[in-house]
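Lab meeting notes turned into a lecture example. A postdoc, R.K., suggested we walk through two folding results consecutively so the class can see how the record format repeats. The first protein's sequence and structure tokens come next.
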Amino acid sequence: MKKLAFLALILVSTLTACSTKTNGDSDATDTDSKDTTAVVDDVKPSIPEDRKFNDFADYIAGIEGDGSSILKGLEGKDTWKSYSTALDGTWKTTNDKLPVMKDWSKTEMNRGAGTLFYPFSGPDFLHADVFFPDHENIIMIGLEPIGTYPDILKKSETGKDVNYLNGVRRSLNMILAKSFFRTLAMADDFNGEVDGTLPVLIQFMKRTGHKVLYHEKVGVTADGKLSTDVTNMGKETYFGNRYYFQREGSDVVRTLTYFSVNLQNMAYGDMPGLDSRKDFTAYLKNANISSSYLKSASYLMHRETFSTIRNIILDESECVLQDDSGMPVKFFDTDKWSLTFFGNYAFPISLFASRHQTDLKAIYAAGGANLKPLPFGIGYQYVKGTSNLMKAVKK
């Protein structure tokens, strides 16, 4: 296993828009993570590169691997060929829209560096990368577990590869067609042969032009640090999964850390709430969040029961990009934040009609220099011309 030098990047100025500030129950990998034991918040160690992760990424993305791929022999099977062809069709609409979104991001987001926080994300690496392509570190949180790295060779031998690939493709329908995941649908999609969000997240990395270098399990210590030494951590620990990946043509190694966590103040089922777990709130406050992104967030932070995570985002972020399902506009004090609005806002979809914001509607009705067009559809109002985004930059 060759070593890849991974130098900690020095975060840059907070002057550019969306720029910087100086409990997953998974069996993340069968690769021993003890060699990289460290608290990894500030200085990241040299990490091993194991090609099996990128070979799997190629396979699950329906992309032919190189001649030495350990899964190369499976690409000749009708199962994979049909899956790859169907996946190309599923991605067509998204691939047509991505250049427009990237151009908008270059103009409006200033492509700042730093750490991106994306709560309520599910496995949506796609939009995190489109809007924040230069953020070196990404923290994503959903209710869904990451799941296990599958033994694809074994699944192929037993015929279970058909159900696995069909499950992955089915789970992509909503996010690629309408730009968001449905929580209830994910509960079904990731509770069978596909047992978590891992294959969808990995596929997004590969289909957006990245190489997946490594994947390891991490845990949050009692004082809010992130550690790769999980050997003696108890079952109450918030465990996550960290990915190391690299854009094609770039020598910058980025990280994505995914957690399955209840972000409500109080418990949800058997998942503890943030107010009773100061370790995870300390981790977020220690994470040097520069930008936060909120999309199709079920209007949860309109509720006082999500005030803790709402306040962390407002306190720690230098920039927030969100649609109206994130935080109500009333929480952005214009003495502290510069606000720019994009697209159109009339009314939430009927499921969330009670979350209508009359003050936000008045802002859009008034127009002005801080109201700009949005050349694509996104979020619950995913049809072009009906969507909205708001960019808030801390003064």
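The second example is placed directly after the first for contrast:
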Amino acid sequence: MRKSGDFSFVHLIAILAVVAAVLIALSHRSSLAQQKNSKSKTMSDIRLMTLDPGHFHAALVQKETLAGVSPEVHVYAPLGFDLIEHLKRISGFNNRKENPTRWALEVHTGDDSLARMLREKPGNVVIIAGRNSGKIDRIKASVEGGVNALVDKPWIINASDFSKLEATLNTAEAKRLIAYDIMTERSEITTMLQRELINDAGVFGTILKGSENDPAIYMESLHHLFKMVSGSVNIRPAWFFDVKQQGEGVSDVGTHLVDLVQWMVFPEQVIDYRKDVNVLAGKRWPTVMTKDEFKRVTGEPNFPAYLAGNVKGDKLEYFCNGSMTYALRGVHAKLDVIWNYEAPAGGGDTHVAWFKGSKSRVEVRQAQAHTVHVIPNEPSLKAEVLAALQKKVASLQVKFPGVAVVDEGDKLRVTFPDKYRDGHEAHFGQVATRFFEYLRDPKRLPTWEKPNMLAKYYTTTKGLEMGYRNTTASR
């Protein structure tokens, strides 16, 4: 095991990579000066700072040029793997052939990233996407320091931090700042269509209540540890596999699923976690990785010492999988979060979601081909549901031109043009744009966002607590 003071060729390459990325960023300075002199102030009313970018989602916010956002971005982070990977991604966006961005990064390295950022404060928005343990402390300090925050999920991974979350949102409200959770799945076309359909009484009827053993809502989110992002292998930091730093399935990816349940079934409504949420059951289990598999996805030849407690023999038990069942205003939902090591050939991450109504079931499957189906509960209801669906689709032409209905016998498929298949990575820019609109006009921020965010994290952390009562070696 390498001692902390050792230096190697790998370290040299890493440092050179940082220098190269910074030089590439600085190469845009002259054009920046011209832009500052020629553009109106409104063109740069948003000034970004990035804090400790330990997750590739931090870079995806900047994958495209963002209107009204200054191209000069200040990055505060310790010199190391996470920073290097972040700079490489931004450099890749700047140097691609099609629609290159022109981000100019001012990089501030050191171990006091948060304190220095708040002391210098060259921007009015901080982007945070990295280690989830202690993330709420960084958000809280940023908001208390007068900075708006655009933050990747999850904000908390344990119920013990819930009071900090509530205090942070209260402070943001009092200071007239916006602290916003990056909920990308709200921008996915199949999810948006599903939301429209389950809230159409003619198509769906009313949501059923279901039960713990027969839920009215089911969602499954399947991810893979080894994957490609923006055309390159997504090398994950070793700490990603420490659930104390990254969190587990239910409290991490589960954040998206709980958010969707609230957003879809009770749109524009305030959820009160004290009386509307009842977490019923949970489960957790590991994905087992060999040392070679770990090296392939992290570049590290050995398991770090902090993972020793989950190493059995020569394999790592990574407790990234989870399941939970809960009732939201009496409507029962079951959520499964699954992490496999690698997708089969031609496969990838998938998302399955279905909602049971009194007239039909509305089902979404996101895989290689994204599908939306409306399935009448009884053959006798088909004509009625089809007519209502055709009427609904006609009304959706304003929002989603080109959406259509195909009769597939026992199923009715809602189709949409390929232009809507923009993918997960594109959704980060869409969320950021929505966030910037709220910054410019805070009155546009929905009143339900704050209470529903509290309800979301109350649900996920309680679900994890339930999971610890039911831990298994496999699913």
